[in-house]
Amino acid sequence: MARRQVKCIKTKYAAQPHEYITHIGGDWGYNNARMVILEAEAIMDINTHTHTYFVKDIYGDEAEVLVVRHPSGKDYLRTHRDLTKADNLSQLPLCS
């Protein structure tokens, strides 16, 4: 199992913040190259204990990325609640 830092996201427009992340990315590729994966792949990684994901804030504190089930039945990614009210994932830059 690898522990992966999420450094960027790709989004689509949606009314609910947790519904608009479509991809996450980080330096997990060969020779630490930037790699971007579908949100669904990250959800599968977490659920099957293949990889864990985390986000670092500007102070270097880490927030774990979790899989959460929306009342509609759809799974999505969210960080573990920390002292800030900001969504750690949505604060990340867009993947290029």
Strand content: 35-45%
Shape descriptor: globular
Major sheet, described briefly?
4 strands, mixed
Strand order of the largest sheet: 1-5-6-7
Q: Span between N and C termini?
A: 26 Å
Sketch the topology as an H/E string, one letter per element.
EEEEHEEE
- Poorly predicted runs are none
Mean pLDDT: 86
In brief, what are we looking at here?
By secondary structure, this protein is mainly beta. The protein has one domain. 9% of the residues lie in helices and 39% in strands.
How are the SSEs ordered, and which strands pair?
Elements: E1 2-5, E2 8-11, E3 21-26, E4 35-38, H1 39-47, E5 51-56, E6 62-69, E7 75-79
Parallel strand pairs: 1-5
Antiparallel strand pairs: 2-3, 3-4, 5-6, 6-7
